[in-house]
């Protein structure tokens, strides 16, 4: 019986070695790896874009709704609106390594391009909170309403804050922690992208009441003037861009649109079920289907679906590293 016992112990040790003390599978991070925040089952899925496969599933058992991969390429910071702390995990170890006390109400987070600071949007205090990547709070700015959408200019000298509850876009100097100026925008705004070539910010939205938003609103960055509207039904709420064009995801119609910098449409694709997020990862677009529980990988040139990968339930945000 001893050889059998030895074999059982060996197999158990091998299986246990594949998981951390937190019961989470280790993840070898690379620029082709993304994570999805799945809010229906409180899980995190890891996708390797280059392999076209789901490489790990974490059952985190907390209502996280957002995440950031820190510049060390290993630490995954997870936060949630109802949580008082943001938690830090080592991906390669599959272990929780610490927490930051950031307070309840955080609805969005953005790692600034210098890699030294993170900006959190707090919906309870209506503040923009600045933190170092070591977890120390370095500043705070009060607004009329916390923005759901945060953008950084190409030079890193301005932040653009779009609120769903306040019909206003705020332009912020991140170094001085002050609001440079603001201008009125449409109601129930959500999602935005900078088109700096034309000195524009494109803003999407859900619509108000029974009036479902059908268009992207294009504002002049300097004057705040509404220059035009681009038809992109229904509910254009998420954006990304690359050298091929600007892409808008309308979750009301489950449609991905490809546009040029002048707003002309160069294709569209029905995709997923109630998709909320599109992200550029290398030379691929990743689209999260919230109700279909999957990630679609799309060629940005021709809008052809290259792969469909199952993830946890309710993928709400796609998290990638780098800038």
Commentary on this structure:
The chain is mainly β. The protein has a single domain, classed as 7 Propeller (Methylamine Dehydrogenase, Chain H). The protein has one helix at residues 2-17; strands at 33-38, 43-48, 53-59, 66-69, 75-79, 85-90, 95-101, 106-111, 117-122, 127-132, 137-142, 149-152, 159-162, 168-173, 178-184, 189-195, 200-205, 207-208, 211-212, 215-220, 226-231, 236-242, 245-250, 255-259, 265-270, 275-281, 284-289, 294-299, 304-310, 315-319. The protein has a 4-stranded antiparallel beta sheet, with no helix packed on it. A 4-stranded antiparallel beta sheet has the order 4-5-6-7, with no helix packed on it. The longest helix has 16 residues, at 2-17. The chain is globular. The model is unreliable at 1-19 (pLDDT under 50).
């Amino acid at each position: 019986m001893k050889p059998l016992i030895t074999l059982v112990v060996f197999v158990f040790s091998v299986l246990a070695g594949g998981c951390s003390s937190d019961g989470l599978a280790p993840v070898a991070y690379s620029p082709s790896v993304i994570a999805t925040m799945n809010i229906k089952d409180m899980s995190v899925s890891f996708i390797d874009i280059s392999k076209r496969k789901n490489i790990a599933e974490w059952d985190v058992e907390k209502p996280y709704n957002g995440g950031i991969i820190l510049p060390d390429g290993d630490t995954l910071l997870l936060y949630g609106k109802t949580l008082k702390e943001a938690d830090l995990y080592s991906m390669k170890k599959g272990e929780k390594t610490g927490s930051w006390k950031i307070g309840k109400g955080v609805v969005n987070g953005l790692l600034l391009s210098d890699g030294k600071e993170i900006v959190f949007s707090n919906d309870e205090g209506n503040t923009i909170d600045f933190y170092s990547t070591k977890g120390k709070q370095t500043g705070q700015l009060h607004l009329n309403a916390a923005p759901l959408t945060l953008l950084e200019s190409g030079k890193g000298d301005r932040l653009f804050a779009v609120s769903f509850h306040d019909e206003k876009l705020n332009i912020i100097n991140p170094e001085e922690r002050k609001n440079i100026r603001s201008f009125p925008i449409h109601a129930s705004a959500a999602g935005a992208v900078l088109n700096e070539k034309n000195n524009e910010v494109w803003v999407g939205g859900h619509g108000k009441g029974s009036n479902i938003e059908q268009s992207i609103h294009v504002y002049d960055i300097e004057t705040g003037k509404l220059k035009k509207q681009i038809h992109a039904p229904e509910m254009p709420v998420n954006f990304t861009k690359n050298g091929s064009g600007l892409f808008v995801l309308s979750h009301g119609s489950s449609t991905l649109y490809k546009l040029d910098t002048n707003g002309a449409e160069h294709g569209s694709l029905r995709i997923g079920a109630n998709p909320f997020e599109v992200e550029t990862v290398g030379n691929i677009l990743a689209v999260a289907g919230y109700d279909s529980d999957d990630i679609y990988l799309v060629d940005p040139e021709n809008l052809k679906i290259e792969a469909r990968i199952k993830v946890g339930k309710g993928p709400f945000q796609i998290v990638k590293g780098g800038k």
